[in-house]
Every structure is written in structure tokens, then in C-alpha cells.
Amino acid sequence: MLNVTKNVENGKAEVFAEGRLDTSTAPEMEAALMEIIDGLTELTLNFEKLEYISSAGLRVLLTMQKIMKKQGTMKVTHVNQTIMEIFEVTGFEGFLTIE
Amino acid sequence: MKELVITAETKNLDEVMTFVDTFLEEAECSMKAQMQIDLAVEEIFVNIASYAYAPGTGPATIRVGLTDDGSVFVIELIDQGVPYNPLAKEDPDITLSAEERKIGGLGILLTKKSMDDVQYEYANGSNILTLRKSIR
Fold first, then answer.
1. pLDDT of A83 above 90
2. CB distance A95–B97 less than 8 Å?
3. Hey, are the CB atoms on A89 and B103 less than 8 Å from each other?
4. What is the 3-state secondary structure (H, E, C) of chain A?
5. How far is B111 from B80, CA to CA, in rounded Å?
6. Contact B37/A52 with Cβ under 8 angstroms?
7. Residue of A55, A69, A89 with shortest CB distance to B98
8. Range of the domain at B41
9. Which residues of A touch B46 (CB under 8 A)?
């Protein structure tokens, strides 16, 4: 189960992901982001209510990071400790901007 | 041990997770260990669903149990697909930048990092992956 909500304004977007970002839900997260990606210069992924992320979710983050690197900036905010550990063991903390 | 036999398709992932999580909740597994176990089970089941019988599909058997003292969760994930040892694959380079990263290889790495022990065996025409994790 994943709920995705978006605030988009003037090329800036904050996207809230709530629940589980796994193999079942990663495609909807990616689709929701691809809908707003055109012309986006600032993307904030708010993970305050994200409880779980698997490699399928990490793949979405990697895809978005590659796109945003070319057209603006991306950051991930309010990451909880368990998800932070997953970013650490996979080296994602090395290239993600985490606030 | 409890056993679930299910068609190895990603659409069955939720059923697999429910089977595993129900067992873990009854075993009073810690929240953190449960999340790490979920992670490993998802990665392995999705691998089986994606590759073991490709382009067709076939059964996956999942057995769950505890060691005698109840402190360690043991899960076996079994398929009769092409022989494949996921542990033989080299880990992805986690020091690379986003641009240099390839999409893939993270699932097995996460499985190894989140479990206490991962063993692969090929026996009687089956791939058998056994994971162990302390639940306290």
C-alpha cells in the first residue's frame, strides 16, 4: 500500500510518499513522478510517512536522480532511521541529497 | 515449519508477505527485524518470479520456522527453475555516482546485508535459498 500526493508549483514539486515503496507499488510511484517531471527544476521527496523501501523503490529513486541531475535538483526529506540504513548499505546516501 | 506453495509471479508478492508477516507477528519478532526480513523475502521472491522459469512460470515453495529456542527465524525459498546461485554474483559497486549506477543487483546485496546468514544449495532439481535472522 502506497499513497502518493503531490504539490506542484512553478517548476517545483514536493511529493509525499506514505506507506510501502516496494515491487508492487514502485510502478505507481514512478508513474506519478513521470507525470510531473517535464520542466521540473526542484523535486522534493518527502518520506516522513514512508515505512519501507525495497530495491524496486531504490530503482525509482535512481531513475529520478538521473533525470533531475540534468534539469535541476532533487532532495529527499524526513527519512526515518530504517530507511536511512537502507540508503547507507546500498551507498545511496553517497549521491542522494538527504535533509 | 509452515509451508506456502504459490505460483512464482510478482502479483503474488502480497500473499507471500502476508504469510511471512503473520508468522513473524505470532513469533513476536521485533519491528526492525521484521522489516529486514520483509526486504529479503521480497527480493528473493521477485527474483524467482522474474527469472527462475522465464519466460514461463512455475511454483515457489516458502517454508518458515524458528530455531528450537525461538530466537532465530529460518526461511527457505525453493524453486525448480534454472539452477542459479544468486550469491555467486559480484556485489554492485556502491561507491559509484548516480550516473554510473546500473539499475539492478541491489536486491541480493540488500538481502545479504539485512540477514544474519544466507545459504544457497542446489539439490534434487531445486534451488534452495535459506535465510536466517535473529528476531529479538
1. yes
2. yes
3. no
4. CEEEEEEEECCEEEEEEEEEECCCCHHHHHHHHHHHCCCCCEEEEECCCEEEECHHHHHHHHHHHHHHHHHCEEEEECCCHHHHHHHHHCCHHHCCCEC
5. 21
6. no
7. A69
8. 2-134
9. 23, 56
Given 3.30.750.24, 4.10.640.10, 3.40.47.10, 3.40.50.970, which CATH number is that of A2-94? 3.30.750.24
A97 touches chain B (CB under 8 A): no
Residue of A nearest to B113 (CA): A89
The one-letter amino acid code at B40 reads A
Evaluate if pTM is beyond 0.90. yes
B38 → closest Cβ in A52, A66, A91? A52
- Amino acid identity at A13: A
Give ipTM to 2 decimals.
0.86
pLDDT in tens, A13-36: 999 999 999 999 999 999 999 999
Number of structural domains in chain B: 1
